[in-house]
Specification:
This is Branched-chain amino acid transport protein AzlD. The protein is about 75% helix and about 0% strand. By secondary structure, it is mainly alpha-helical.
């Protein structure tokens, strides 16, 4: 089904304005004063919360009693923990862990080894 070009243009404009507003509003609201304590708390705790969500997502559908027995998940969690303890960089841990897990799952490395 083809969309009307005017309809697509309106949708694009609304999305662009919403994106711009989310970037500009903090500067408008917090230009002359410090941000509220809740924002500082969120800023401090967001990386660990993201990592926790990635771990939960990673483990939600694991078949512990079938090949590959959750080995890609356990391997990735160990790699992320080691990387994070070594480098103390949340973004590096998040992206490296996500990339490693996706690589192991997509290539089916452990199923080939243990299957």
């Amino acid at each position: 089904m083809m969309e009307d070009p005017v309809h697509l243009l309106v949708i694009t404009a609304v999305v662009a304005m919403a994106t711009f507003a989310t970037r500009a509003l903090p500067f408008v609201f917090f230009n002359t004063r410090a941000p509220p304590e809740i924002l500082s708390t969120i800023e401090k705790n967001l990386p660990p919360m993201i990592l926790l969500l990635l771990v939960i997502y990673c483990l939600k559908d694991v078949q512990w009693l079938q090949v590959p027995y959750g080995i890609p998940e356990i391997f990735t969690i160990a790699a992320v923990m080691g990387l994070h303890l070594w480098k103390r960089n949340a973004m590096l841990s998040i992206f490296a862990g996500t990339g490693l897990y996706m690589l192991l799952v997509q290539l089916d490395v452990f199923s080939v080894l243990f299957g």
